[in-house]
């Protein structure tokens, strides 16, 4: 594909944006970066690649709301006139991509971030309409799993215009080279999701309290922060297990692999996910997983082979799964090897990223 001018328009600057922009910077394309908000998600500390030009505009200063819509839309039109992109790559669907659709610019490549189709599209009639409008005005769409693909089709996106590939992970950064398994005294559980309702982290706390009553060898590390931090700590205090839980807070990208490699099992009770990057990081690190049985997880977890599934929202089933993993801990090294092989086959970022060029080719005709 010949060199083109691409405006990459995202909600915020996250580790996912960094990965996409870093990979795009290595292509022959001219890349411009536009940021809708500042502080809406976990922020990436690594600077933008030098080859990427960040575009200054009225957005990107704080949280964007409907009240800012007309102002943002007007300035986005100005940005498009100045940058003169050949293509705009934008997401999430109802935020960045929706604003581009409203300008009438084409070709628009919309990128689903998972939660936009799994959760936001169902918020209310307006968000549902915004989803349909955006996809109907997108020349191509990028999604990370079959669940997202099916939802996009349901909202009016032609299936032949959808490019699906797991975003994947850096399998050299998340690896098994220094993999450590617990001794007989401790069994280490790991959660890396934000302390927010959609990720079900309070369910992990409740299930841990139940499981820890039956098994004193269980230890839990909860990486992250969020609005449920105080209630989650209270669950552990009331359950008299607070001394067996670690709260490292927000962990840097460089530090994260060590947490996966020293964990026996990764936990996620998320109510909404596409191809969960955290799950793929765990698998790449050789860590089996216990996760909610939502469709996105079902595409990755094979019960008894690389992890376990439990009914979404069922605290007792999650506690039972934790105890089952402890009882079957002699199987974990083999399950971890299976998880790593799956990550190498399907979740290698370097192998998957070139699929994005298919979406660009569709958009450019």
Description:
It is built from 15 helices and 13 strands. The protein has two domains: 5-168 and 349-364, Glycogen Phosphorylase B (Rossmann fold); 187-346, Glycogen Phosphorylase B (Rossmann fold, 3-Layer(aba) Sandwich), CATH 3.40.50. The protein has helices at 15-25, 69-83, 93-103, 115-118, 125-136, 146-154, 201-214, 229-238, 256-261, 277-284, 295-298, 315-327, 332-346, 349-352, 356-364; strands spanning 5-10, 30-35, 53-54, 87-91, 108-111, 140-143, 162-164, 187-191, 218-223, 245-249, 265-268, 289-292, 307-310. Strand 8 (187-191), helix 7 and strand 9 (218-223) form a beta-alpha-beta unit. It is globular. The protein starts with a strand and ends with a helix. Helix 3 (93-103) crosses helix 5 (125-136) and helix 7 packs across helix 12 (315-327). The strands form two sheets. The chain has a seven-stranded parallel beta sheet, with helices on both faces. It is α/β, with parallel strands linked by helices. The longest helix has 15 residues, at 69-83.
Largest sheet: 7 strands, parallel
**Residue fraction in strands:** 15-25%
Number of helices: 15
N-to-C series of helices and strands: EHEEHEHEHHEHEEHEHEHEHEHEHHHH
Shape: globular
End-to-end separation in angstroms reads 11 Å
Q: Please state the CA-atom Rg, rounded to the nearest Å.
A: 21 Å
State the CATH superfamily name of the largest domain: Glycogen Phosphorylase B
Looking at the overall shape, the CATH architecture of the largest domain is 3-Layer(aba) Sandwich
Question: Strand sequence of the main sheet, in spatial order?
Answer: 3-2-1-4-5-6-7
């Amino acid at each position: 594909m010949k060199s083109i001018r691409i405006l990459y328009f995202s909600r915020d600057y996250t580790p996912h944006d960094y990965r996409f922009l870093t990979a795009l910077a290595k292509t022959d394309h001219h890349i411009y970066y536009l940021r809708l908000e500042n502080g809406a998600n976990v922020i990436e500390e690594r600077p933008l690649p030098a080859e990427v030009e960040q575009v200054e505009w009225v957005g990107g200063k704080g949280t964007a709301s409907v009240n800012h819509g007309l102002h943002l839309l007007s300035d986005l039109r100005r940005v498009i006139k100045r940058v003169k992109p050949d293509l705009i790559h934008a997401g999430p669907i109802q935020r960045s991509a929706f604003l581009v659709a409203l300008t009438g610019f084409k070709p628009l490549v919309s990128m689903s971030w998972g939660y936009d189709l799994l959760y936001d599209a169902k918020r209310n009639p307006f968000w549902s309409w915004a989803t349909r409008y955006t996809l109907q005005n997108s020349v191509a769409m990028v999604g990370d799993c079959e669940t997202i693909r099916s939802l996009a089709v349901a909202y009016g996106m032609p299936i032949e215009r959808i490019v699906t590939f797991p975003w994947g992970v850096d399998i050299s950064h998340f690896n098994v080279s220094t993999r450590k398994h617990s001794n007989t005294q401790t069994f280490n559980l790991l959660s890396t999701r934000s302390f927010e309702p959609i990720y079900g982290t309070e369910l992990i706390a409740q299930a841990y309290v139940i499981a820890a009553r039956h098994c004193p060898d269980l230890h839990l590390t909860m990486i992250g922060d969020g609005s449920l931090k105080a209630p989650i700590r209270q669950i552990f205090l009331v359950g008299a297990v607070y001394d067996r839980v670690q709260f490292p807070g927000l962990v840097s990208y460089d530090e994260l692999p060590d947490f996966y490699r020293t964990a026996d099992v990764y936990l996620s009770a998320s109510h909404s996910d596409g191809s969960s990057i955290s799950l793929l990081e765990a698998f790449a690190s050789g860590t089996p997983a216990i996760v909610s049985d939502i469709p996105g997880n079902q595409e990755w977890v094979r019960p008894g082979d690389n992890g376990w599934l439990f009914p979404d929202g069922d605290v007792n089933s999650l506690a039972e799964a934790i105890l089952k993993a402890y009882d079957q801990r002699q199987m974990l090294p083999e399950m971890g090897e299976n998880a790593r092989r799956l990550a190498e086959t399907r979740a290698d970022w370097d192998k998957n990223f070139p699929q994005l060029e298919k979406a660009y080719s569709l958009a450019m005709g």
